[in-house]
Amino acid sequence: MVYDKLMDEIVIQAMAKWPNVPYCYGWLALDARGAWRMRDERAQANHLSGDRINNAALLGFINRNYTHDEQGRWYFQNGPQRVYVDIEATPFIARADEQGGFSLHTDAPLGKIDRVWMNEDGLLILQSGDIVAQIDDRDMAQCLGLLRAGATGELAASDDNLMAWLSASPEDETPLHFRDGDRLLPIQRIERSNVAAQFNFTAHPRA
To answer: Which pTM does this prediction carry?
Structure first.
């Protein structure tokens, strides 16, 4: 698996004991703020986000056993059963931590940032290795202080710089950068509708 961690031993044993349990689709979702949501039949039928899961033990279990298949469909391995996940934004959601870095919605650290994108809503997407994580919109205000404007990132980006960058055509834009420690990473544009294709994941897995 690309997301480098071990599943619970009890899950591995269950997979070996019952290898042919049917997969589950549409019942679990990850929203754009990193909340896991249970989607019952009513939620699915009415295109609702579902009920937020708040139980700490269950959240830990889901986070530890969250991975993906070779088709880019993310799922939670619930004992012998794969529970495929509907993804609102990206497979991971990043949150600013107290040390000035970022952690994932699974509580794992994001790691070294390799590339940075921004969508038309002004939301940042960070890539670290194979991990792709949109920043929780509630943390975007804190992240604005990390944006730099100008060809060499010499200026702190103002609200006007950001709005101009978002509204400019690519050939007319003033470069925008993301400051990660002593590094400046160029911010690339991405349309929200192209995120899944760009990062090779399936937002709404179905049988």
So the answer is: 0.88
Residue 175's Cβ-count burial label (10 Å; 0-12, 13-18, 19+) is middle
Of 69, 169, 59, 37, give the one whose Cα is nearest residue 106.
59
Residue 21, Cβ neighbours under 10 Å: how many? 14
- 99-115 pLDDT, tens digit per residue, is 778 999 999 999 999 99
Which pair of tokens denotes residue 165?
Answer: 């960058």
Q: Determine whether 62 is exposed, middle or buried from the number of CB atoms within 10 Å of its CB (0-12, 13-18, 19+).
A: buried
Burial class of 187 by CB neighbour count within 10 A (0 to 12, 13 to 18, 19+): buried
Report d(CA 26, CA 12) in Å as an integer: 23
